[in-house]
Input
Amino acid sequence: MDDRTHGQGVAIPRADPARRFAMRRREIDRAIARVIASGRFILGDEVAAFETEFARYLGARHAVGVGSGTQALSLALTALGIKPGDEVVTVAMTFVATAIAIEEVGAKPVFVDVDPHTRCLDPAMLEAAIGPATAAILSVHLHGIPAAMGAINAIAQRHGLAVVEDCAHAHGATIEGRRAGTFGHAAAFSFYPTKGLGGLGDGGAVVTNDAAVAARLRRLRNYGFDAADRSVDDGANSRLDELHAAVLRVLLGDLDAQNAQRRALAHDYRARLAGAAAGLPPADDGAVYHQYAVTLDARDAVRQRLLCRHGIDTGIHYPLAVHQHPRFARPVSLPVTERLAREFLSLPIQPEVATGQTARIADALRESIDACR
Output
């Protein structure tokens, strides 16, 4: 993961979060000054206010700010009672943090394939992966495209399983008008700088409608302390700090507008790339297109030509599926996942980078595809 502008002199970078921060620089500076003046830097009023505002935005009852998106996943699993020896069914078409979080609680990730249309967990593959040790399902809204939570929840209910949503890409995404992050027993968000709601460093949050789970999360993030400062539970130091929370409060107000811009850019790409030799992500009114990933047969050659000939930087999310990393190597057949890992190419989609550039990018992609046949 890298949040820098990629390639000095590149005409169109893949992403540049600094441009977004610059647009709200005055409000961000005031928010930072407010924190410094308060003298409270950990678990103060800014974190409490952000948690309330973020939960309200999502339509959830509770949000608990934590140190990172990865820790949000592991703490959510712990708060739901996932323990060593349990199995958690998830996908391998995700960032390795999803599987790392499962292993951090002593559980074992069990990988299933993704739906070729949504690129998210395929409910048709899910039930066969459930065994006597299965305790939870961890569903990933990849690239901001919502997973089939209705079908996933129905399977989970039949088997008595916990459901956690990995919403690292899905801030503000919706399914039939309801925000992603409110379908499972808990959901994990990342505020890494390049995210749809990204801060000035690492940060995350767990969202839940269960008051008991929220209370346990608040203990888990802070050494297991209860209200009397007694360590009564498993715990860690995983706290969203006041500076990050203050900045996130500023940017939360822009999130819907940012997502609308991303949807418009995705719609424009879809129109301009119609008939091109590239697979396009689904057209979904609830998607927020954290990435706009096309699939290409000659992905690596096309990517190189886009950069060297056209000055357009792109990304690969992700060049290896999780089960292809040595740490997580599994004797499992995931043909759709493995094809996507070979073929995914993420075009610039951050509004501050891509607005006004989609025609140029689409034309360059068509030219590069034809040249690399």
